Every structure is written in structure tokens, then in C-alpha cells.
Amino acid sequence: MPDKKISIRDIAEKSGVSVATVSRVINQNGRYSAETEARVRQIMEEYNYVPNLLARGLRQQQVPEIGIIVPDITNEFFGRLVVQIESELFEHGYTLTICNTNEDRMIERRYLEMIRAKQMCGLIRISHEHLREEELIDIPTVYLDRIPENIKYTGQCISVESDHEQGGYIATKELIKQGCRNVGIVLHDAEISTKAHEMRYIGYKRALEEANIEFDVKKVIRVKRADCQNGGRAALEFIERRGLPDGLFCTSDLLAVGALDEFLKHGVNVPRQVRIVGYDNISLAKMMMIPITTISHPEHTMVDITCRYFLSAFAKEESELQKKKRIVLPVELIKRETA
Amino acid sequence: MPDKKISIRDIAEKSGVSVATVSRVINQNGRYSAETEARVRQIMEEYNYVPNLLARGLRQQQVPEIGIIVPDITNEFFGRLVVQIESELFEHGYTLTICNTNEDRMIERRYLEMIRAKQMCGLIRISHEHLREEELIDIPTVYLDRIPENIKYTGQCISVESDHEQGGYIATKELIKQGCRNVGIVLHDAEISTKAHEMRYIGYKRALEEANIEFDVKKVIRVKRADCQNGGRAALEFIERRGLPDGLFCTSDLLAVGALDEFLKHGVNVPRQVRIVGYDNISLAKMMMIPITTISHPEHTMVDITCRYFLSAFAKEESELQKKKRIVLPVELIKRETA
DNA sequence: AGTATATGGGTAAAGGATTACTCATGAGAA
DNA sequence: TTCTCATGAGTAATCCTTTACCCATATACT
Hints:
The structure is a homodimer of 339-residue chains. By secondary structure, chain A is α/β, with parallel strands linked by helices. Chain A has helices spanning 8-15, 19-27, 34-46, 53-60, 76-91, 105-117, 164-177, 196-210, 228-242, 253-265, 283-287, 299-314, 320-323, and strands spanning 63-70, 95-100, 120-125, 141-144, 157-162, 183-188, 220-223, 247-250, 275-277, 294-296, 326-329, 332-334. Chains A and B meet through helix 4, helix 5, strand 2, helix 6 and helix 10 of A and helix 4, helix 5, strand 2, helix 6 and helix 10 of B.
């Protein structure tokens, strides 16, 4: 067990120098001789000394820590984003503090206050929540994946998202390319906030139009939650009432998984009778008995841009990222066996 | 955007009282009149003041923050644990700081140093890593799920884990109960650290022995990683070379998923020809075309005990938890359609 | 009346690190 | 020799809160 708490003062005393010198050694700020450094380092080692980050942060009015507001870390996509950002920032000496809101705006507000109270130096928000003037924090901010509707690009911030319209478009286009002329869609109808699925829907319609396929509302099923049950129910609806499409675009992989299972259970051959394209590239998609063709987000680029933005902002560089405030990234079709 | 930084001093000045009084109001420490309180609160509101937690922590030599060392937040089981603990502790005024190590011991060490440097008040470790004396931190600690082999229950700590041996036992027993006499096992052979799967194996053997079924090494397949591919490969090995068992215990759900898919692809009827029981109760297990029977961890109890331990430790209560250092919790069979 | 106690609130000392200044010494230049 | 400047290192202020201690005033009790 470590000894009682050791401060920089103790180290200074034991190594016969002033606290200023010890501080310089810790921060490698020059202004000390090699012997002094060796002595100080040895004492620090010996007493297992770790500088108090609270004191340092208090003095510097900042802490190398970035808060990330995330709706649900359990969601695979968000989880992967968080882990990648964390590890990248950690390598550069920054800590990432995860604030899981569970989609609760009050919790988000409390977390934002905490981020301010802890003098963190950066903020990432995956949240549609619109904030009041006084809730904003004046630190570099990245709006990631979910962007508030009436976002104002004032202050130090950028937004990074993927192109959902294009995603819906290329998914549908792939189905058409495979010969489908009767393309349905299972659409997550996120009432409250997220426009993402609506954009995918718009892309779907654009692809249809471009191929001169008449749009048919009968082929559109809206569901309230994007999960397997609803995917299965939608498939059943097609089977029992609306008639089988030859292609089906599901705006989320979970819907696709549920639909696929349901089709198979009813002896519908996928992809022979119905081709399916999902969205999000969750790991489950490729683990299905028939691996699901899907759209994948530019995850790595999103992470990369986010981290680069912070590093350049903290270095007070004027990078090109600072200028281009709104960044929309292309998505990618992952070709597998359902389409 | 909030105004320039406001300190308690500013608030004191603007409301015509001393900083001590403002501090008392903030901390509701009595010693002020109702009018004073109202005035101070109003000024704090008006200036959108948030106390600096670094200064507070520095002064109090502690911060209401608990660090959690976790191998991979992306893993569904760990993710759920973390989210539940976070939300429970947050309700009691504590922050949870997630330290994702990606199974890298150097990263864990760096995180531990950070936890010490930030004066956090509690620690949760999901890690087999054995620490040297000087790496230990003298704060309440919960070893969760993964327990270092030669753990010493000195200082303020408890360990909370589930009973893997019992899990292996009831999984196998269920198969036997369903009439299987020829029960195989796909075993994650975690060389380095985790004894969990070995314990499940021991439980498996105990169930066999109890039912007077002769143990047969031919029915044991060890794999290096617990993923779908390996599950599939193991199933294939049974199909092509070793002969089909009538029951199969997979020590992880991912193995079970892979095996199930492979069996189905080869026209093996599950559960008619082969019954399967998995382990961990991941969400994928119930989403399969044939939902997989599995063993579920006492997740909620683990979370509950962990949080209760901290709350009582911080309140300096002598709870019964402090005494019973090693806590082993029973697991549960989730009956579905593969067994 | 005189003393004890409760109430409301102020003063100033931590708490640990950083950093602007200051200073002594020695080397090199004029 | 004298002046300049680089080097190594110390002093003390500062960051913002909490809190031990102190001090009036008012009330209550012999």
C-alpha cells in the first residue's frame, strides 16, 4: 500500500531542491541540470510520487480531459466510436470522460454542468438536444453523428456526420442493380428527433425515381422502434397482406435481422425471392446464417476528424477543420449475401 | 455563451456576503439566514455560477468519482454492467470514470496512476492483472467478475463474481435432463488468465459424473477465441470427424451461435438431433432463428452489491459487505428453444 | 443584572502545483 | 577589468474552495 500522501513539497525537501525545480523536472521545462534531474527522479520513484492533477488543473485553469455525451454506450456503434476516440486521445495525453445519458435530457444537462465544473477542455456531443444559451460551454466542441436541428456554428465547434441520404440512395440502388423492381422499405419512424432515417428514406425515393420505378406507399412500413421484433412483424405484414417485394431496404440492421429470420421461417428464399439491404453494419449482420448486405458508417474517419480537430484546437493551430464547420462523410456499401 | 469565469469570490462580492457564507449556502451547511440564502442563490443563478470541482477536490483531498477498469466496453456484458453502475452512482452524486484497457496491462497501469492522481474515491477493477504493492491504491475497491488469481483481501476491498462452476453444472444438467447421454463441450481455452471457462468445464464434468455418464475427451473441443467462427469450426469438427453429440454445452454464447448456424447449414436439426446450451445471455442469443438456451449472469445483483459497497464505505458504515470479502453469486438458466 | 448559549457571518489558512520574477554564478566579449 | 548573457535554481503569488476559529448580537436562564 502506498505511503501517506506525498506532495511536491516533500519531494523537493527530500531531494534538497525547491518545489519549482521539481515542478520543472516533472514538466520537463528545462532550467535544471542533469544531476538535479536524476536526483529528483530517483526520489520521486522511491516515494512512488504521483502529481496531484487537481492542483495542476486548478492552477492551469484546465484539465486535459474531454467529455463525451452519448445516448447509450451499449449501442454497438456508439460503443465503438467511444472506444476508438478514447484510445486515440489517451495516446495524446487526454482523458475521455463518458457521459451516458440514456437519452434523458435532464441527465445530459447535469453532465454538461459537471463538465464545466471540472474545467474540462473539450466536449463531444452525440445528442439532438438543443441547448439554451447559458447551457453552452465555451470549449472546443464536436457534434458527432447526431446533430441538433437548429445548430448554430458559433464559437469553437464543428459537426461530423455521415450522409444518410446517400446511404439510402446507394442501398436502394444496389437492390435495383440486382434486378429488383418492386422495392420495399422498413423505416424506423423516429418521431422525436433523429432525422437520419428520414434522410435514408429520401435517398430511397431518389434511387427509385432515378430508375423510373414508381413510388408506392404500400411498400413503406414504418415502425416505432428499430429492433428485431419490428423487423419480423414488417416481414410478416409483407408476407400475409401486402405481398412480397423483391427487394427490401431496412433503415437499420436490427430490422433487417428480424425480417430475414421471419422470411426464412416462412420459407421465403433470401436472396432469391427477396433481397435485403440493412444499415449500420452491426456485427450481428455478418453473423447471421445468411450474412446481411448493409451500409457502413465512416466510423474511422469520424473518429479521426474528431481527434484531429481537438488536437489542432488545443495547439491553437488554425487548421482547415476549423473553417469547414459542417462535415458530411460518405458511407459505404458492404456487399454480403442478402443482396 | 457563459460570461468569463465566475468564482465564489465574485458571487460573494455581488451578494454582499463573505465567501464563507456563499460556500455554506452551496453546501447547505447551515449558519446562514433564509434571506441570505435567497440572495446568494439568486446571484448564483443570475451569473450562471458553477463551483469549481477541482478546487473543492483539492481542498477536500477527494473527489466523488469512481474509476472502473474494464477490458472492453464494447463487450455487451461489460457495457451493461458499466451503464448500470454509472447510472446508479450518478444518482448518489458520484461520477464513474470508464477506463477501457483493451486488455492491455500497460494501459491499465497508466489508468491506475491517473485514478490516483485525480484523487478518486473508489475503484472497480474488471481485470485479472496482478498488481505490485506500490501500484495498489488505498481506496475502497471492488474486484468485479474477473478476479486476480492471488488476490489478497487486505485493505478496503471486496470481490464480486458469479459461480462459473455452478453455471457449467446446471447447463450440462439441463441437457442431461432433456435426455442427452452424449454431451459434448466447446470450451474457450483462455490460456493467460481467466479461470472462468475452466470452472465451467469442471461443472460440466461434475454433472456428467453425477449422472453416471462416462467422461470422454473426444467430446471436448478447445478453441483459442470465443467467437462465431470457432463455434462453427467446432460444430464442423463434430459433424465431419468426431461424430454428432446429442447435446452440446458451449462455454460462451458466441460459440453457441456459430455452432448453431453451422449445424443448421448442414441440415442438422436443433434441438431434435443436437441440443445446445450457451453461456452469458448475450442479446444475440435470443435473436437467432432458433433462440438459444443459455446461462445468465446475476448482472443486476453484481451491480447492486458493487454500488451498495461503495455507498456504505463512503458513509463509513460497517456493513455486512465489508466483512464478507469474497462474494460468489448464483447464475440462472434461461430456457429457450435449443435445449 | 450577569452569565451562558445560539445564531449569523467574517477572516484567513490550508490544499498542491505552476510560473513570473529574482538572483547568483560563471563564461565570453570588449 | 568590466559588462553581458546564459544557466540553474529559489521565492512567493496564484488558482478556487472549504473550514477551523473568531466575533458580534440577541435571547434565555439564574
